[in-house]
Amino acid sequence: MRVRAYEGERPNVEHNNLLGVFYLEGLPRAPRGDVKIIISMQIDVDGIVKVSAEHKTSGIKDAMTVTNPSSRLRENEIAKMMAEAEKLKVEDQRWKERVELRNALDQYIYGMKKRLNMEKRWGDMQKEDVEDMEAGLEEAEEWLSEHENAVKDELAEKMKDVRRLCRKIVKS
Question: Which residues pair with 4 in a beta bridge?
Fold first, then answer.
């Protein structure tokens, strides 16, 4: 797993300064969403940045230290970034909400597909209902990958559609 450390005030890392990268290697395979990684960042009085990552289950950990002042921002650059972040706060909040909604839709589709697979094995839903839901979930997943830049309203509407589609399985 790649761990990247940034300095900056914006929620989208593209607008921040990359300090460095390290890799957490040898992690055991796990189902999506089940991996728990604790990442911590410390800055000492001399401005040295220490970033560490630890896989909670296995205890595998690694870290990096950023001491190179050339990769760090100067005081005037930090002030400029902070002013820009304040000026773009509303835009950043909209971006964050859109990303969170997109991730929630992706997680919901994933969870419903898992639940539908269990329903197919042990449940009592009608075969036609299961097939309709499978097709609808596949379509929603394709829509999500084809609409990388969908706006918040489009994502919210798609979430409503998927929830409506999955009512039967949610009730069971």
Answer: 21
pLDDT, one tens digit for every residue, the chain (172 residues): 999 999 888 899 999 989 889 999 999 988 887 889 999 999 888 878 899 999 999 999 999 998 866 667 778 888 888 898 889 999 999 999 999 999 999 999 999 999 998 888 888 888 888 899 999 999 999 999 999 999 999 999 999 999 999 987 777 5
Question: In sequence order, what DSSP letters do the residues of 39-53 get, joined into one string?
Answer: EEEEE-TT--EEEEE
Instruction: Report the CATH architecture of 2-72.
Output: Sandwich (2.60)
> pTM for this structure?
0.72
Name every residue whose Cβ is closer than 8 Å to that of residue 13 and which is 6 or more positions away in sequence: 4, 6
Residue 120 structure tokens? 């197919």
Which architecture, in CATH terms, is 89-171? Up-down Bundle (1.20)
The answer to whether 2 and 25 are in contact (CB under 8 A) is no
